[in-house]
Amino acid sequence: xxxxxxxxxxxxxxxxxxxxxxxxxxxxxxxxxxxxxxxxxxxxxxxxxxxxxxxxxxxxxxxxxxxxxxxxxxxxxxxxxxxxxxxxxxxxxxxxxxxxxxxxxxxxxxxxxxxxxxxxxxxxxxxxxxxxxxxxxxxxxxxxxxxxxxxxxxxxxxxxxxxxxxxxxxxxxxxxxxxxxxxxxxxxxxxxxxxxxxxxxxxxxxxxxxxxxxx
Length: 215
Known about the structure:
alpha+beta; five-stranded antiparallel β-sheet; single chain; 10 strands
């Protein structure tokens, strides 16, 4: 019995890296069939006889996103929804546009590490390590520079220049997920109790109410 449990433990440890990231390919391609009613971890595969070049193609990253919003930034995503051929490939990318003083606010990608390069302008970027240290790792980066945001950590980008900025980022998942901290905490549906938030942030309830009203 003890030997059997030990074997099961070894198998669990061996399998854990595989289930900790996007599923690996078991065939050349698995083009997403976005019309399928089958629910799997990702998308069901389209029949190979129906696969075409357009399944691996996207046009539009040459176009600037609309930064006329409160944050002054816009994210154009390219993942398995836009390119069905990315299904099970474990990668995706985004274009991010920033107006002067534009911010891609503190957020996390629960399923992906991000690698970002600046195409135009300059950015103040950073991420915060996990508890208990909560260390801010930050840097001003310029055209051609590259910065990495580790998987799951809160991070941000801010255009500290006087001109528009543009960046391209790659992510290590076909569906990285995005949790914007302020939206999640103050804009959840239903709302988190202001008793909880006032205690968590050590502020008065009226301050919490004011923040929630922004979302």
